Amino acid sequence: MTMVPAEGGPASGPTVLRMLLGGQLRRLREGAGVTREAAGWEIRSSESKISRMELGRVGFKERDVADLLTLYGVTAEQERAALLALARDANSPGWWHRYGDVLPSWFQSYLGLEAAAALIRTYEVQFVPGLLQTADYARAVILLGHQGAPPEELERRVGLRMKRQELLHRPDPPQLWAVLDEAALRRPIGGHAVMRAQLDALIEATAAAHIRLQVVPFDAGGHAAASGAFSILRFGDEDLPDIVYIEQLTSAIYLDKRDDLDYYALAMERLCVEAAPPESTPELLAKIRDELYPG
Predict the structure, then answer these.
(1) In the chain, what is the straight-line distance between the N-terminal and C-terminal CA atoms, in Å?
(2) What's the 3-state SS for the chain?
(3) Which of 275, 265, 267 is nearest to 221 (CA)?
(4) Which of 63, 57, 54, 17 is nearest to 36 (CA)?
(5) What percentage of the chain carries pLDDT values higher than 70?
(6) pLDDT at 238 over 50
(7) Of the chain's two ends, which shows fewer C-beta atoms within 10 Å, N or C?
(8) CA-to-CA distance for 231 and 276, rounded, in angstroms?
(9) Strand partners, 179
(10) Of 200, 243, 186, which is closest to residue 56 (Cα–Cα)?
């Protein structure tokens, strides 16, 4: 059984802990030859509840976990204690919990996954990726969807986005591989000074060993991800599947089925081939900056 650090560690979070525990419970259930329906009956619930638990999409009650372990024939005290401790940790709130007033529930799961990812691959067509936005650029983007928000709410939303970026500055940061459509760099978000500073920040980011940035130029024509932005998250733990994340206006889609993963992985690979090579990115960014936002 693979364990991860308790909440507060650099690559931890309740979302991933739930996924790990859910995966372990699924393997134990299948090993014991117990159906989801029978498992649901055991904890006074349903087959669908067991499915959600095994996918890590709901919290865990210690009593339910203990009853399931008994049903699955797990009697060794050390193993039971480890899994019950994992259930307790999985119910601990993540750092983003204190931003609950400005954070939609469907995005909280993504923050947990992002915090634990070893590799984040993302494609953006309209905006600079959130992990690479300056505070002023982020404020301008957030205003597009929250024009009537009071100043204090706006600043909390900006603060949340800046807090997310701390994962890129921790001792063991994830690899970030971002592909941007040229349109995202030419769209004047926030005005001249904001865009120039944002492009400067992107140029600086390309110097980091754990950040790879590519641009799909206009002259590349149509490309593999014409349908829109998406991200692929990969984790260092072999028990966790890759996740494709697609954000919508009022919700998000999380895909983890092999066919979906293969489709989006292929689209990302084609994007990286069609984009300008990473080593040309600083020059390309500087050219756009000096053309559109001269200092």
Answers:
(1) 56
(2) CCCCCCECECCCCHHHHHHHHHHHHHHHHHHHCCCHHHHHHHCCCCHHHHHHHHCCCCCCCHHHHHHHHHHCCCCCHHHHHHHHHHHHHHCCCCHHHHHCCCCCHHHHHHHHHHHHEEEEEEEECCCCCHHHCCHHHHHHHHHHHCCCCCHHHHHHHHHHHHHHHHHHHCCCCCEEEEEEEHHHHHCCCCCHHHHHHHHHHHHHHCCCCCEEEEEECHHHCCCCCCCCCEEEEEECCCCCCCEEEEECCCCEEEECCHHHHHHHHHHHHHHHHHCCCHHHHHHHHHHHHHHHCCC
(3) 275
(4) 54
(5) 93
(6) yes
(7) C
(8) 19
(9) 123, 214
(10) 243
Closest listed residue to residue 65, CA positions, set 55, 50, 46:
50
Question: How big is the chain by its Cα radius of gyration, in Å?
Answer: 21
Instruction: Please give the pLDDT value at position 225.
Output: 59
Count of CB atoms situated within 10 Å of the CB of 117:
24
- Taking the model in full, what pTM does it have? 0.81
pLDDT value of residue 93: 78
> In the chain, what's the furthest Cα-to-Cα distance?
69
22: pLDDT strictly greater than 80? yes
Mean of pLDDT over the chain? 89
Distance, CA of 184 to CA of 215 (rounded, Å): 9
